[in-house]
Structures are given as C-alpha cells and as structure tokens.
Design brief:
Layout lengths: L4 H9 L6 E6 L5 E7 L2 H8 L8 H8 L3 E6 L3 H15 L14 E5 L7 E4 L8 E6 L2 H14 L20 H4 L13 H35 L3 H21 L8 E9 L4 E9 L2 E10 L6 H12 L8 E4 L6 H12 L4 E3 L4 H22 L3 H14 L7 E10 L2 E11 L2 E2 L5 E4 L8 H19 L12 E5 L2 H13 L6 E6 L5 E6 L2 E4 L4 H35 L7 H11 L2 H6 L2 H5 L6 H11 L3
Length: about 600
C-alpha cells in the first residue's frame, strides 16, 4: 500500500478542472506513466481514491507513484498531441508501448533465363528484379503464392535447364499446381509467357489480369489455336476462384481499418484488420503485458500505431466507444490531409467485422496460454454473465453425495483454462456429523479446503492456490451455507450455485443477487452443464466406492481371522465375492496374506452346510 496515497489525493484534489497532461514519477524520479485528461482534477484524483475498482495494473502503478506533475493545455486536442509526444520521448513503464517490427517486403524475380517469382523481406544486390517495397507483407506473400499456383510456376530449388530430366516431378505437378519444366517437356516460350502473366497479375490485380487473359483467349480462339485457348481458359477460372477466396468479407467501405481489443486481465491484444477495395489485405496484432484500463489508452494505441509509418485510411472501425473521438479524428485527419471517420458499429456487416477481429485477438492470447479461442470466449462470457473482475481461469466445483444420510461424501473438481484438471480433483468424507444435511456437509468441506489454504498458501499449488470462481452443485441454500465459511477464512472468491430443473438438468446459476438464467447463452450453458455433470459423476463415484467397501467389509470382515487387510487382498486377488465363495481351499491358501487357518475359516464361512 502506498503510504503517500492520502497526500497524493490531497494534491490531486487541488488540480484545476482544465484539460492537460499528467506525469507520474517513482521514488527515483523516473517517469512511469503519462496520461491526458479533459479535467485534470477529476481524472488524477481517481487514481488515489479507493483501489477496489482499479485493475491490477493501475494498483501496481499507484503503489509506485511518489509524486506527479501536470501541464495545462488549451484544449483536449492539444493534450492529446502532447501526451503522444511525451510517451514517445520517455517510453513510460505503465503506458502501452508498441514496437514497430513490421518491415517492408518485396516481390523478387530471379535473374536466370528461366525466372522464378518469390516473396522476400530483404532486398539484396544479387542482380534480381525487385518489385516493391510493399508495407502489407501478408498481402504480398499471399499474392505471390497465388500467382505461382494459378500460372503453375515452380517453387522448388531446381535450376533450369541444368536440372532437366534429373528427377521425377514433385507433388505440385500431380496436383496441377506446376508446369514441371524439370521434365524437359515445357518450352521456354510457354514458361516465359506464364511468368509474364503472373507478373501482370501481381502488378494489376485479378481484375486487370482477367481482362488481359480474356483478350488473349479470344485471340487464340480466332486463330483456331484451341489448345492454347483452353489453357488460358483454365487460368481465367483459377484467377476467378482465387479472387473469390480473397474476399474474406464483402464490405461496402472500400478502404478501412478494423481495430479490436481483448484481454484476459494478465495480457491484452490489439488486433488490426486492414481492408482495401473490400478485401482483407493485411492484419497485425500487438500483445501488451499491461492490459488496457480505459478508452484513454485506446487513444494512445491508435496514435502510436499510426505514428509508425502506417497508412491512415479514411475509415477506422472500433469495437468500443472512444472518449476523445473528435480529438483523435482531428489528429488523424491532419496527418492524412483529409477527414478521417471513427465508428463503433452495433449491428450489421460492420459489427460482424468487429466481432471477427476481436475473436482473432482472443485467439492470439489463447495460443499463448495453450487453449482454444472457443474456451477463451466461453470463459469471457462467463465472466461477463457473473460480473467477475477477471476471467475465471481456475474454477473449483463441489457436490455432495449420500444415500439416506449414509456414506456422506463430497467431490471437488477443478477446471483450468476451460478444461478439466483431473490431477487436482479431491474427495472428502464428511466427518463432523452423521445423517443427511447437504448444507452442513458443503460448509464442512469448504471449511476444510480453506483451512488447508492457510497452511499451504505460500506454495501457490494445490489447496495453496485460490480459485477464481467456486461453483456449488445446488441452489441458494448451499451458497448461504458456504458464505460464512469464506468470511471466516477472510477469503474473497466469487461464489455461485448451479441450479437444476426437475429433470436434473442445469437451469440457472444462483448467488446473492438471485438466479441468472443461462439457457439463452448456448456456450455458457453447455460449459456449466458439463461441469455440473462432471462434479456429480465424480462425487457419486466416490460414494459408490465407499458403499462397495462397506459391503465387502460387512461380509468378509465378519469371518474370524479376516481383517480389513486380508479382506482387501482377497477381493483384489479374486475380484468378486462370488469368486471367493467358489474358490477351493488350496486357491484360498495361495492368495497373498492368507494362511492355512485363515483360508480354512473363509472356506468354512461360505460352505457351512
């Protein structure tokens, strides 16, 4: 806890209600955060008030603040420009900082007689023809691959004519993606014609290429060169198919960038989709270790991104509202030289684009943590549904099982990153009372669990790790029984119950605020149902095991000379009571841990007649 918090708040409350920039310093005087505000007093004082509503990143930053400075500006736009300039100059630790590692790319045409077309990141002095540079490396690489496929150009390392007839043609020839000049049966004229057509395709795009190819096909037909016309027709078909594939999404806006953000509270990911002429031409993502807190940091990202020599489009679509939209639009407009429009669509085609972009941002973080975007999205949806402060990566679920109060047991299962973590499953035998009382049983189990937490919390493993969410199999009664236990151990973990309907199927989630219906949210409904079924299966399995053990104890341990150890050895060796009953004296005597006297006692017990 920052001991200077009250002093800093007092200073913040004395700030003017003017737009400006604030600069946070640590004890060594180093700048650790820079921000802008419409009203300095309101914005800065928020940092030094209650810490409960702040994210982990802000709390860490505030703990390190020793003092702050501020600069008053005439307008929010001036504050935006100054903030951007100061962040570039000082690179503060807690600001979102982008590293511009996106280089240029080139289309390379080899200097050989039998030319090859490749995609390159560097231009070298090797005598080759380089077309470019291009900023959209994704689009260039994809286009080169498409051109080589459509016009059946080789992508192997063979050199022509040196490697003619030295080896069999590769797989690309058999799947009709290469002319296979290596066979020596392709004329240089035909090969060179395909190279020129591929270059025309790369330089002019599919529309221009289609016009040229169509004209050539018609010319060949008029000259009665039907074989050549058929080959050109096949190229036209391939270009059309590829053009259709390239249209990932059909958009009405010809040029735009779509920017979406996803966070798991530990990291954040900005995803950018770049569209030109209604086609996705490039995409980038930036993973930041300090998640975004508010719309102000989104503004910082936009300014940083378009300061890195990125082309500014007329239209930018975001997945959330921008507090200082007008100021950012003005900055972008002045940089572009014409007006820029920022929108946050709520429905229609543009909203679907934003959703796709955000899913890709989630997928990036999912890959980092070794999970799928579907698992990530269901956990995020669960977080939103329950109003949690962070994504529930580590969930514990509990269920009670008994038969009319006998063999009262409980099971605990764990889900980590949306998947069952079976090594963390635990079984409990109810010890504090006899009979049936699900509420008291649940309270006992959670009490024992968090007693272990107090003993093991320094390890951070097993019971020494706090869950992000606890789900009880049951309704409000179970939740009410466990809440005092959490208070007793001074543990703050979100607690909810999983409610079933008359057919024993998951119906809702319940907490202090009442029931939350989940049937309308398909992914969450499926996830919770699976978890409830799994904890029920685990706890009832343990209950049946206890009953089975009791059953064999009540029969085998009634025999003179047969204790629990010998009873277990008999059951392990013979598998069933029926097999023990049917065994002869010699077989019983040969069983581990058995003597002749104990074997005789077992035999006589089952053959008393």
């Amino acid at each position: 806890m920052n001991e200077k918090l009250s002093e800093l708040r007092k200073k913040a409350m004395a700030l003017p209600l003017s737009p400006g920039v604030y600069i946070m310093h640590n004890k060594s005087g180093k700048i650790i955060y820079i921000g802008k505000a419409k009203a300095l007093k309101n914005r800065v004082s928020q940092y030094f008030g209650s810490q409960n509503n702040h994210s982990e990143k802000v709390r860490r930053m505030v703990e390190n603040v020793d003092y702050f400075e501020y600069i008053i500006c005439d307008s929010e736009f001036e504050a935006l420009i100054l903030e951007c300039s100061l962040i570039k100059q000082h690179s503060p630790k807690y600001n979102i900082l982008l590293k511009d590692d996106k280089g240029y790319s080139y289309i390379r045409v080899s200097p050989d007689k039998w030319r090859k077309i490749t995609y390159e990141l560097q231009k070298t002095n090797d005598g080759a023809l380089y077309i470019g540079p291009y900023k959209n490396s994704f689009y260039v690489k994809q286009s080169v691959e498409e051109a080589n496929k459509i016009f059946k150009l080789p992508t192997c390392n063979r050199k022509f004519p040196d490697d003619f007839r030295k080896a069999r043609p590769c797989l690309n020839y058999h799947i009709k993606q290469c002319l296979a000049p290596c066979t020596g049966r392709v004329s240089f004229k035909e090969y060179n014609e395909n190279v020129e057509q591929a270059l025309d395709f790369l330089k002019g795009g599919s529309t221009k290429s289609l016009k040229q190819l169509t004209a050539e096909m018609e010319e060949a037909s008029e000259s009665l060169d039907f074989e050549r016309a058929a080959k050109i027709r096949d190229k036209i078909t391939a270009v059309k198919k590829m053009a259709d594939k390239q249209k990932v999404v059909s958009v009405n806006v010809p040029d735009q960038d779509v920017i979406a953000y996803f966070t798991d509270r530990e990291r954040g990911c900005f995803q950018i989709f770049r569209f030109e002429g209604g086609r996705l031409t490039d995409h980038e993502n930036f993973v930041v270790n300090s998640p975004m807190n508010d719309g102000g940091e989104l503004s910082q990202f936009i300014l940083s991104y378009y300061s890195m020599n990125r082309e500014i489009p007329r239209n930018i679509t975001l997945d959330r509202e921008l507090d200082d939209k007008e100021a950012v639009e003005k900055w972008l407009g002045e940089k572009l030289g014409r007006r820029v429009y920022i929108t946050n669509p709520q429905r229609g085609e543009q909203a679907q684009l934003v959703s796709m972009c955000r899913k890709n941002a989630a997928e990036v973080l999912a890959q980092i943590k070794g999970r799928t975007s579907r698992e990530y999205s269901v956990l995020e949806e669960l977080k939103s549904l329950l109003g949690l402060s962070k994504i529930p990566e580590y969930i514990e679920s509990y269920d009670i099982s008994n038969l009319a109060g006998t063999e009262n047991v409980a099971g605990m299962i764990v889900y980590e990153n949306g998947k069952p973590l079976k090594k963390a499953y635990k079984k409990f035998k109810i010890k504090s009372f006899e009979g049936q009382d699900d509420y008291a049983s649940m309270a006992e189990v959670l009490d024992r669990r968090f007693t272990e937490y107090e003993n093991l919390k320094d390890t951070g493993e097993g019971f020494g790790r706090l869950p992000d969410l606890i789900l009880l199999d049951g309704g409000k009664g179970q939740v009410s029984a466990v809440e005092p236990i959490l208070k007793k151990h001074n543990v703050s973990v979100p607690l909810f119950g999983m409610v079933k309907d008359g057919n024993h199927r998951t119906r809702a989630i319940t907490g202090n605020g009442g029931e939350i219906t989940i049937s309308s949210r398909r992914s969450v409904f499926t996830f919770i149902s699976k978890m409830q079924d799994e904890v029920h299966r685990f706890s009832i399995g343990y209950h049946r095991q206890r009953r089975k053990n009791t059953a064999f104890k009540s029969s085998l341990t009634d025999i003179d000379g047969i204790g629990e150890t010998r009873a277990k050895a008999l059951l392990k060796h013979f598998q069933t009571i029926a097999n023990i009953r049917n065994a002869d004296l010699k077989e019983l005597e040969n069983c581990p841990r058995m003597t002749r006297d104990s074997a005789l006692a077992v035999y006589n017990y089952f053959h008393s007649d």
